[in-house]
Write a structure and sequence with these properties.
The protein is of the alpha+beta class. It is built from 1 helix and 6 strands; from the N terminus they run αββββββ. InterPro entries: DUF4307 (IPR025443).
């Protein structure tokens, strides 16, 4: 079966020779050898991982002491001038904690705050506390911001 071409038609298959191009020396810079260089990305990834680990350790030391863990139980007796916060704090046996309390309005703005110290009786590790926070306006919600070792 022969392929017949009409006038002006281009053959469907063309043949090209696969030879490497020849570049004038020094004109296009250094030629790459085809291998990928992974040292740069690996060093960059290691530096990022070390920085992330250092930041994690620093923030954990600043904000995350597992010996002093607070949980809000409820907020009650809400008036335009105060709110009562009931909360529990986990402390080392017989320890004391200094806790920051906050009251916020419906929009989330802080309307009152207070720092209190609560102490465990005997060798207890959980303290149940109820504290009143004075407010400038009617509160919508109460929070225990952070508890840490009492001075």
């Amino acid at each position: 079966m022969a392929l017949t071409l009409f006038a002006g038609e281009v053959p469907l298959v063309s043949e090209t020779r696969a030879t490497n191009p020849i570049f004038p020396p020094g004109r296009y810079g250094r030629r790459r050898d085809g291998r990928r260089r992974l040292a740069g990305p690996i060093i960059f990834a290691v530096v990022i991982a070390v920085a992330a680990a250092a930041l994690t350790v620093r923030l954990y030391g600043q904000y995350g002491d597992p010996n002093y863990d607070a949980q809000i139980v409820r907020w009650t007796n809400i008036t335009p001038t105060q709110v009562t916060l009931d909360f529990t704090v986990r402390v080392p046996a017989g320890g004391a904690a200094k806790c920051g309390l906050r009251a916020r309005d419906y929009d989330g703005a802080e309307v009152g705050s207070r720092t209190v110290t609560v102490r465990a009786t005997g060798q207890e590790t959980t303290i149940e506390a109820s504290e009143i926070v004075q407010t400038r306006a009617e509160a919508f919600v109460g929070d225990v911001l952070k508890c840490q070792a009492a001075d």
